[in-house]
């Protein structure tokens, strides 16, 4: 890593982007071996929020009969009001461009307030059913609140909650264990699979529109990441469908999706998008080839097939590493 940084600085100097004096100052600063604890401190703040909200949930679960529903809801509401009061008081207001709080703790206060709001609405619906039998509204309302908080306070963590809530409202399972389960609705319900693909496309279209009007363009990577996973997982889970037309449609979908995200990963210079695109494409291609040759009798050439199989996997690993290196080299230039 240090060698890479030195080479990067040297390239900047050779291209004339920095002066000789600046080059020497950077080298001197690097030699001091000073490192920042900013990432570590933010990680502890994030863990603190998760532990606090988890503790609230455990407190409600273990003392629900002794504390009382009204007392629990009142306590949650007080904490939520306090969190958002300080956030609104210290925020710069809504802006289309990227903004930050002067103190990073307030960003995690927004996250805590948002999570507690979701808990409050969910608990309120479970106990008193203000939305009646329309349980989808109990998901949609905190999702709308999360989107508002994400855009108003410019918070990516809250944005992930909002998109997850939107996926839950559509009816998608968002955990890998549920998605690849044999009883998962994505496999059993074709309409839900198409809904997942449509949700992914809508996230992509919103990203394109946001870039056109310059609205929180830095949120684009979050939307695209969700879109990639949703479309790819929905497609892969249906490639094993017994209906020929269905699995061929989803093979076409994952093919188009992989091509789009391959191109967009270069545009955003996003290593995460690129890696997952390659992984999903590899899985999709292998399942597709298996479906094409599933009726072919390999009995006479099974020895050749077993001999070539290790070479195939080794070759794909080598190709994968080469692709990652080339991508890293191209986005670094």
UniProtKB/TrEMBL annotation:
Residues 12-158 form the DUF2157 domain. The chain crosses the membrane at residues 43-61, 67-88, 108-128, 134-153, 158-180, 192-209, 221-239, 245-262, 274-293, 299-321. Pfam families: DUF2157 (PF09925). Keywords: Membrane, Transmembrane, Transmembrane helix. It comes from the Bacteria. This is DUF2157 domain-containing protein.
């Amino acid at each position: 890593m240090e060698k890479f940084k030195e080479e990067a600085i040297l390239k900047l100097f050779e291209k004339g982007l920095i002066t000789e004096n600046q080059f020497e100052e950077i080298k001197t600063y690097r030699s001091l071996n000073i490192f920042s604890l900013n990432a570590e401190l933010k990680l502890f703040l994030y863990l603190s929020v998760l532990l606090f909200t988890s503790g609230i949930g455990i407190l409600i679960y273990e003392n629900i009969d002794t504390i009382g529903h009204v007392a629990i809801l009142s306590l949650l509401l007080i904490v939520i009001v306090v969190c958002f009061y300080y956030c609104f008081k210290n925020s710069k207001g809504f802006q289309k461009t990227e903004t930050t709080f002067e103190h990073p703790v307030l960003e995690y206060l927004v996250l805590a307030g948002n999570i507690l709001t979701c808990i409050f609405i969910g608990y309120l619906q479970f106990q008193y059913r203000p939305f009646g039998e329309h349980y989808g509204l109990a998901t949609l309302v905190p999702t709308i609140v999360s989107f508002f908080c994400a855009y108003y306070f410019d918070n990516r963590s809250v944005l992930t909650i909002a998109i997850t809530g939107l996926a839950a409202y559509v009816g998608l399972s968002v955990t890998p264990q549920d998605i690849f389960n044999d009883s998962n609705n994505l496999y059993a319900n074709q309409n839900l699979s198409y809904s997942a693909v449509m949700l992914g496309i809508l996230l992509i279209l919103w990203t394109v529109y946001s870039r056109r009007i310059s609205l929180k363009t830095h949120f684009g990577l979050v939307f695209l990441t969700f879109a990639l996973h949703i479309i790819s997982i929905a497609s892969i889970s249906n490639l094993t469908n017994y209906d020929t037309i269905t699995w061929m449609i989803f093979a076409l979908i994952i093919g188009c999706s992989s091509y789009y995200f391959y191109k967009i990963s270069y545009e955003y210079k996003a290593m995460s998008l690129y890696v997952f695109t390659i992984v999903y494409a590899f899985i999709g291609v292998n399942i597709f080839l298996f479906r094409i040759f599933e009726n072919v009798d390999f009995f006479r050439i099974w020895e050749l097939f077993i001999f070539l199989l290790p070479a195939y996997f080794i070759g794909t690993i080598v190709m994968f590493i080469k692709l990652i290196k080339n991508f890293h080299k191209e986005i670094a230039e």
